[in-house]
Design brief:
α1 runs parallel beside α9 (221-241), α3 packs across α10 (251-267) and α5 packs antiparallel against α10. β1 and β2 form a beta hairpin. 47% of the residues are buried. The longest helix is centred in the N-terminal third of the chain and has 32 residues, at 2-33. The chain has 14 helices and two strands; from the N terminus they run ααααααββαααααααα. It is 70% helix and 2% strand. Strands 1-2 form a two-stranded antiparallel ribbon. With 347 residues, it is an all-alpha fold. The protein has one domain (2-159, 170-272).
């Protein structure tokens, strides 16, 4: 049984990679044809960032469409085939009410909201012509988080939080604010990390690979397949997004990935493992919080520029060096997180 399920996860993940690879050239062509270019922060508001990235001003955004369109498209096709033809196609279908309804819905809604924000930026709508403000994005993250938290608590009766090496703790209604915090933090961190060619795509690939393993070990094979399909799509996306990027991910990708990651972590009750599965996201968001706090309280900066990947760029590190080293850090700490997961769940 497990061998067949492993074959399904790996097989559909490979199909996802090939499908995304085939889909991308057409999307790239559309993005360039209609000049869906990312608008950089102005030289006055972010001088260091502008100097480091001004050469990228005409690079299209919204490349994250490749990721979620592939994942949702494969899910829909296999569901239709599984409904019409049982047997082999029923075996491939991974849409499951108990396991994948919520992450699929979360990815779709977050992708749609992110796409609207990206389009606002392209057409210079919003604050300084750059789309939604951070505060406005946080409101959207919170809205999705509240809906998800209430659904988990009232509809699914989730009231426990797994504490590594100690077991499940009954937390009652505290589950809702914790859920809200995780989703907002995941979305915010993903958005902050998406600043260098291939950076967010690479670290998210390790994160979703870890969540695939976790879901499989827990016997949630449909959820493992969904996560694996996301890994396949991310790998194809990176083919075009590594330096020099043909396009940027945009909020439609980062928002979809961040929120979906948070939902899967809550579904698998591995919330407290997220700092291991997504260490770079934690580092990036903390650098922003520390910088803003220091500027407000002490009127001085800790870092040359934030998120922290821009600090290393400002120190003179090539963009590719920052990206690759962050990938390595992410891979190593993710493996440590998986090891801790295996040990803690074996007792």
């Amino acid at each position: 049984m497990e061998v067949l399920q492993a074959a399904r996860v790996l097989g559909i993940s490979a199909i996802s990679f090939l499908a995304a690879l085939a889909l991308t050239p057409g999307i790239v062509k559309i993005l360039y044809k209609f000049h869906f270019n990312k608008q950089l922060r102005s030289k006055e508001s972010a001088p260091i960032f502008y100097e480091l990235h001004k050469k990228k001003e005409n690079t299209p955004t919204m490349g994250g469409i490749v990721i979620w369109a592939t994942v949702l498209g494969i899910a829909a096709v296999l569901w239709i085939l599984g409904t019409l033809f049982d047997g082999f196609f029923g075996y491939l279908n991974f849409i499951n009410r108990a396991e994948t309804y919520l992450p699929i819905a979360a990815m779709a809604m977050a992708a749609g909201l992110g796409l609207i924000d990206d389009l606002m930026g392209v057409f210079r709508i919003g604050a300084n012509g750059g789309g939604l403000k951070i505060s406005q994005k946080l409101v959207l993250y919170a809205l999705l988080a509240v809906i998800g938290g209430l659904w988990f608590y009232f509809r699914l009766d989730w009231t426990v939080l797994y504490i590594p090496f100690f077991g499940n703790a009954e937390i009652g209604w505290w589950y809702v604010p914790i859920f809200i915090f995780i989703i907002i933090a995941s979305a915010f961190s993903a958005n902050e990390t998406d600043g260098l060619d291939g950076l967010l795509g690479g670290v998210m690939m390790f994160t979703f690979a870890a969540l695939t393993v976790v879901s499989f070990i827990l016997g949630r094979y449909d959820l493992a397949t969904f996560s694996g399909v996301t890994v396949g799509a991310l790998l194809a996306f990176l083919w075009f997004n590594i330096y020099p990027a043909r396009f940027f991910m945009g909020d439609t990708g980062s928002m979809a990935l961040g929120i979906t990651m948070g939902v899967i972590a809550m579904l698998t009750n591995t919330t407290l493992f997220l700092p291991f599965f997504a260490p770079i996201l934690v580092l990036e968001s903390l650098s922003v919080i520390v910088q803003l706090t220091s500027k407000k309280l002490f009127k001085r900066k800790i870092f040359l520029s934030t998120p922290i990947h821009h600090h290393f760029e400002a120190l003179g590190w090539p963009e590719t060096k920052v990206t690759m080293r962050f990938w390595i850090i992410s891979a190593v700490i993710t493996v440590i997180g998986l090891a801790l997961f295996f040990i803690s769940t074996s007792f």
